[in-house]
Amino acid sequence: MIDLPDLQSALGPALRAIRVANRRSLSEVAAATGISSSFLSLVENGKSDITVGRLTRLVAFYGVSVADLLPAGPSADPDIVRRAEQRLLPSPAEGISFYLLGPHVSGLMLPMIVEMEPSARLAEYGHHHGEEFVHVLEGTLALELEGAEPRILEDGDSAYYSAERPHLFRNADDGRLLRLICVDSPPNL
Q1: Prior bond to 186 cis, omega within 30?
Q2: Is residue 77 included in any domain, yes or no?
Q3: Domain count, the chain
Q4: Do residues 98 and 23 share a domain?
Q5: Is 95 left (phi over 0), alpha (psi -120 to 50) or beta?
Q6: Residue 162 structural domain
Q7: Are 174 and 103 in the same domain?
Q8: pLDDT value for 89
């Protein structure tokens, strides 16, 4: 897996390269995404990490996938991703780690393992084009879908819903790690 220092050193320059390639100023991106230009500058310069929600807004604005920003790992087989080849997208501020399980994002889905520390939660509701499937491997997930009461999913439970409906994950256990499989189709985050 790609470790955190490698990711932090790669993510900022990748975001800057996409912004520059799109001929956008920090002010324009800030106005379009609701993320301050000073914070964007810190992220682009590797001086701050970014929550998954903010990163999702940026990649949606740029029309790319989160996986496009991560360095590609070496692979002996283009159809297989070995554990050591999984790309890690950590969100330390949220206590969440995303492990990308697919070799690329050119397909129809983005499979991930999501690990959430006890009591961790996404900082904001996410929504994106397509559908999302989650399956709890271990722990207790509180799945919040806009307009409905939070639903509790335990080991072995699954959910399938429109990803356009704002949704939020929360580890409902304050003493146990939550691990789940999440599949976005088309590739989003």
Answers
A1: yes
A2: no
A3: 2
A4: no
A5: left
A6: 83-185
A7: yes
A8: 84
- Is 76 part of a structural domain of the chain? no
Q: Return the amino acid letter for 182.
A: C
- The amino acid at residue 62 is Y
- Amino acid 8: pLDDT: 55
User: pLDDT at position 2, please?
Assistant: 44
The full DSSP string for 42-93 is HHHTTSS---HHHHHHHHHHHT--HHHHSPPPP-S-TT---GGGPEEEEETT
CA-to-CA dists, residue 149 to 55, 86, 107, 133, 155, angstroms: 26, 34, 33, 18, 20
List, for residues 40-88, the tens digit of each pLDDT value: 999 898 888 888 888 888 888 888 877 677 666 555 677 788 888 888 8
Q: Which of 15, 37, 69 is the last residue of a domain?
A: 69
End-to-end, the C-alpha distance of the chain in Å comes to 19
pLDDT value for 183: 95
